[in-house]
Amino acid sequence: MWFKQIQLFQLPKQNFSIPEITEKLEQLTFKPCLPSLPYSTGWVSPIDEENAPILRSVNGYIMLCMQIEEKILPNVVITQELKEKIKQIEASQDRRVRQKEKMSLKDEITFTLMPKAFSKISRFYAYIDTKNHWLVIGSTNAAKNEQFINLFKRSICEEIKTFDLIKPPAVFTHWLKSKDYPNLFSIEDACVLQDPNQQKRVIRCQNQDLFAQSIQALIKDGCEAKQIALSWCDRLQFTLAEDFTLRSIQYGEDILTHSKDIGETKQQKFDADFYIMTETLTHLLKDLLPLFTKKENKEISAKKEILEPA
After folding, report:
1. pLDDT tens-digit profile of 176-198?
2. What is the value of pTM for the model shown?
3. Are 36 and 84 in contact, with CB atoms under 8 Å apart?
């Protein structure tokens, strides 16, 4: 349940009532995918336990879980069936099958094979921070996050916004060029550089001193930092990407050790992990967001050469 990657959204300043949200979630609980459909989505309990509640609430944080069932139908199978069908038509009717008819045949074959397809079940977690009015999704998969947001809008709240940010690559690059970055953070030994004038010129740096002359030469030559590895207060390490997603999150041993000592039942253990994780991520985000949020960042906004609208 510990989020290893997150994407952050802004929610409206409204009261998120637990009974009201519970009722709304229960109207769109997960139902198995019908044989003829390619996928199904719905809400399930964040705790994989029979009769567990549809949501979990701890200290102002509300954990949700979306379950997806997807039918696995490889394209190679559809293509093979399509070729056989075309061959039969052309042989029996002595004519060529045109492109429009091929597309129609492909749809028919897909519909016919769908009930025979295997199913893949996956779960995606997110939590509502009712104090800061955030939605924190534990995934950076754009397609799956869009599915989650669509279900969230249908169930709970239609107004979800992204943050109005200073371009993260401009900030990353400034930190590397000037060695001037907030003392709560440390720059680690990995980044991704890209030349904005030559999009295919991408340099991935691993286990490198980012302030070494070789890396600095690339930056002086026009490369921007698109991702950068950071640590925060010696408690947590992560990679911050240009879209302000946090990836490859690693929690410090002191955090994980403390978590192991709390809780006996599955639900107690879940609640303990949930509490520690959310409190840790909230403090991190409160330190991180002002560095990139236009309304709050006065120091960086004064450096006009690195400020371009996102």
Report:
1. 999 999 999 999 999 999 998 88
2. 0.84
3. no
